């Protein structure tokens, strides 16, 4: 006869089956304390300071008046600027005993000073080895004077399963190191919108502001993710937190050992999601995979025989749910590696092998700051190439000229932005930086400019 025994342990109900033996119970772990003792010392607090520029017109309405502006040297479209120091709080994970720390990029973004406080209360000044907004990851280094620090071992995040018990360790709200427990409640979340490479582990372990950059660990004390975001309408935890998988963290750590620039693999293709209304036309049974919409001429995908209209179903045996999943999978592959794709084409599944290469800078970017009396004065522009597209994010064009930023001048006053693509000037198509500079040399009283921003075409007419 089987007996069903119930034990309440750490808030969990454990069901134990005993075959005719009243005291035959499976061994259970009644406390997370040993696990916390093992992992907690490798999680640190990060304090960052940044200088914030703000318009003083928000302080006094007089600074909006043109009469007062002339006395206070206010910019034409705003009041005088003042600086203030803004402090931010986050967490980090020691991943190398020599003082290498992984955290979120948004924790230390634009920081002028970064300090790290270890679990035992020691404080260190930190330098930034690498920061990448695309993945929202950053790598810091502290000088330990030769002392070896405790570290967290990174495990394979692809082995994580929904239902696994996890601990989240960080410094929420600045109250000090805090541990929360829960389970993995979802995998491969790609619609979070926190980074360009969204592919998050979802957990119900409480994650709050200040936890960003902290550790999500498994029951063996291994790092499976870096806590990055929460789903919240109030700023507090609602039981939905997101962590960047450790496999992506490994990629960024490795990149930091070879310089301060991340070079992610390039395959020379772009894709879109498969929607339910496409299923009949494609011959698929469910809306899954990445539909190829463009193949770059002479790129790795083109050389491997991938065509527009193909649907990528798996990469190296891992299922591809959508284009963001494909992008994540490709980003974690070392440059020079062979990539095995399962592709659906014309009702059949075929296997394709391509090589992941570094994106070429062809044509050379020819980065230039525009000067003179023209609408782009103060803008920094460059030729579009695969390398530049990977560096600043997907652009709607694969050739032409893009704005990298503005350094004052007319361009800033017109509101020109990073990633704006210059389509034409005075109805002449812009194909290169050299051609743009030639077009801007003409002495004119008016300009007609056409830009592309986030897929939308913007037409500007500038007179005077």
Features:
4 domains, Pdz3 Domain, globular, 6-stranded antiparallel β-barrel, single chain, 10 helices, 464 residues
Question: How is this fold's topology laid out?
Answer:
Blueprint: E1 2-9, E2 12-19, H1 33-39, E3 43-55, H2 66-72, E4 81-96, E5 100-103, H3 105-108, E6 113-117, E7 123-132, E8 137-142, E9 165-170, E10 178-189, E11 200-203, E12 215-217, E13 223-230, E14 241-245, H4 246-256, E15 269-273, H5 279-282, E16 290-295, H6 300-304, E17 311-315, E18 318-319, H7 323-331, E19 338-345, E20 348-355, E21 368-369, E22 379-383, H8 386-392, E23 401-406, H9 409-413, E24 421-425, E25 428-429, H10 433-440, E26 446-453, E27 456-463
Antiparallel strand pairs: 1-2, 3-4, 3-6, 4-5, 5-8, 6-7, 7-8, 9-10, 9-12, 10-11, 11-14, 12-13, 13-14, 15-16, 16-17, 17-18, 17-19, 19-20, 21-22, 22-23, 23-24, 24-25, 24-26, 26-27
């Amino acid at each position: 006869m089987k007996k069903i025994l119930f034990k309440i342990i750490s808030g969990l109900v454990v069901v134990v089956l005993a075959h005719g033996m009243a005291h035959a119970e499976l061994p259970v772990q009644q406390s997370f304390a040993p696990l916390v003792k093992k992992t907690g010392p490798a999680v640190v607090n990060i304090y960052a300071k940044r200088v914030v520029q703000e318009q003083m017109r928000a302080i006094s309405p007089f600074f909006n008046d043109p009469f007062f502006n002339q006395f206070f040297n206010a910019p034409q479209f705003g009041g005088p600027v003042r600086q203030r120091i803004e402090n931010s709080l986050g967490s980090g994970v020691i991943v190398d005993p020599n003082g290498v720390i992984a955290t979120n990029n948004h924790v230390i973004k634009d920081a002028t000073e970064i300090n790290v406080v270890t679990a035992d209360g020691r404080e260190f000044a930190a330098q930034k080895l690498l920061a990448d907004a695309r993945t929202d990851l950053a790598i810091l280094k502290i000088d330990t004077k030769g002392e070896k620090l405790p570290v967290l071992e990174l495990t394979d995040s692809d082995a994580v399963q929904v239902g696994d018990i996890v601990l989240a360790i960080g410094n929420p709200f600045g109250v000090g190191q805090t541990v929360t427990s829960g389970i993995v409640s979802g995998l491969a979340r790609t619609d979070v919108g926190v980074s360009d490479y969204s592919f998050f582990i979802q957990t119900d372990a409480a994650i709050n502001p200040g936890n960003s950059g902290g550790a999500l660990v498994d029951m063996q004390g291994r790092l499976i993710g870096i806590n990055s975001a929460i789903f919240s309408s109030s700023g507090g935890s609602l039981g939905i937190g997101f962590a960047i998988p450790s496999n992506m963290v490994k990629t960024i750590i490795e990149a930091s050992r070879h310089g301060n620039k991340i070079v992610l693999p390039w395959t020379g293709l772009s894709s879109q999601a498969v929607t339910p209304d496409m299923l009949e036309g494609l011959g698929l049974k469910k809306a899954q995979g990445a539909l190829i919409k463009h193949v770059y001429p002479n790129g790795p995908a083109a050389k491997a025989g991938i065509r527009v209209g193909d649907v990528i179903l798996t990469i190296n045996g891992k299922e591809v749910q959508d284009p963001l999943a494909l992008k994540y999978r490709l980003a974690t592959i070392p440059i020079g590696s062979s990539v095995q794709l399962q592709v659906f084409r014309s009702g059949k599944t075929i296997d394709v092998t391509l090589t992941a290469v570094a994106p070429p800078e062809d044509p050379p970017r020819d980065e230039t700051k525009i000067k003179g009396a023209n609408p782009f004065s103060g803008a920094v522009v460059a030729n579009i190439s695969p390398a530049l597209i990977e560096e600043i994010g997907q652009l709607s064009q694969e050739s032409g000229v893009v704005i990298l930023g503005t350094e004052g001048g007319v361009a800033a006053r017109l509101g020109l932005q990073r990633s704006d693509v210059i389509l034409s000037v005075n109805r002449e198509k812009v194909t290169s930086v050299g051609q743009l500079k030639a077009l801007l040399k003409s002495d004119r009283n008016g300009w007609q400019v056409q830009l592309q921003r986030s897929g939308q075409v913007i037409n500007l007419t500038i007179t005077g």
